Amino acid sequence: MKKLLQRIDAIAGRLALDGEDPTSLGVVRILLVSVLTASLLAHVGAVADYFSSDSVLFGEWARKAFGERFSLFFWVENPWAVRAIFAVGVLAHLLWLVGRFTRIAAFIGWLVWVSMFGRNPLLYSLADQLQMVLCTLLMVMPSGNGLSLDARVRGSKPVPVWCRRVLQLQLAVVYTATGLLKDGKTWHDDGTALYYALSNPYNRHFDIGPTLAMLQPWVLRPMTWLVLLWEIGFAPFVGLHWIRSLLGRPRRFPDLRWVFLGFGAMMHVGIQAMLYVAWFSPLCVCAYAAFLRPDEAKRLLARLRRRRTRGEQAEDDQVGGDVSEDGGQQSVAPLSHPAQDERPGPRHDGSEGPVGDTV
Fold first, then answer.
1. In this predicted model, what pLDDT tens digit does every residue of 211-220 receive, in sequence order?
2. 3-class secondary-structure state, position 219
3. Most buried in the list 133, 166, 327, 346, measured by CB within 10 Å?
């Protein structure tokens, strides 16, 4: 019995409770809050028209229409007061983005979003609900423990594995539930769902009906079925990804992240280019960062730093060469040494890192 409990504890730890390096969650915070900030700034210029007494629905009428919801703007209705609260929300998002006073900034930013959704829900579509969900999930996570100004002041601290697991699960629910709900003839029999979506004047960016009709039999029909298969298969993919992590990433379990997430990224780029979906596609693609292990996030950041350093060094060399030519003297290139490979290698004991890094 004791061994069974120990085994259950180990599994629960690897799945959710163990601590891991906060770099991955820090990357997720930066990406998602960047999208949230851009979405918030898209309201600039119409804040009073949407959420104050200047709105079409205001005062008692707004409370009767949306009274079951919560919003600060049901009680604060003065246009300039509403603008001031919105400005505080923008400041909170910027602090949340750089990770300073992260907990307080995240709560204030979340509260402003809840108030906006509650005061004027007709302004937002079903796709915008994912924005509210991700904002809520990120708000309750210790996302300021790494890659933040708070971490520079107090030092970085481990974060529980469940933070990234919950985001992975949320994506799986969104995609697979959507795929299972697509049970009409246009998805399963005719394969015309993408054609009609891209031709719909309500959502489309471009009027290219004849071109779409030409592509329908050979491109759009197989793509319709492939997208449907990918959406339904996303939840099993996440399940296999978790099993692979529990088993220590054995070779008999191939890493399918690059296949599934790569296809999803290309799909969302196409959706964003052809259809009006607001911030749905950027949010989904940025949430894919939750599938990065901490060691992978560190290597990615180290690679970006090396590229930036090389670019700065090349600019300095160019400036030095220009100065030498103007002075009539021959410039001598400084001696340079190849940078050592900073990729982490195996330890002497053969281990690859703490259990929490195996995600």
1. 999 999 999 9
2. helix
3. 166
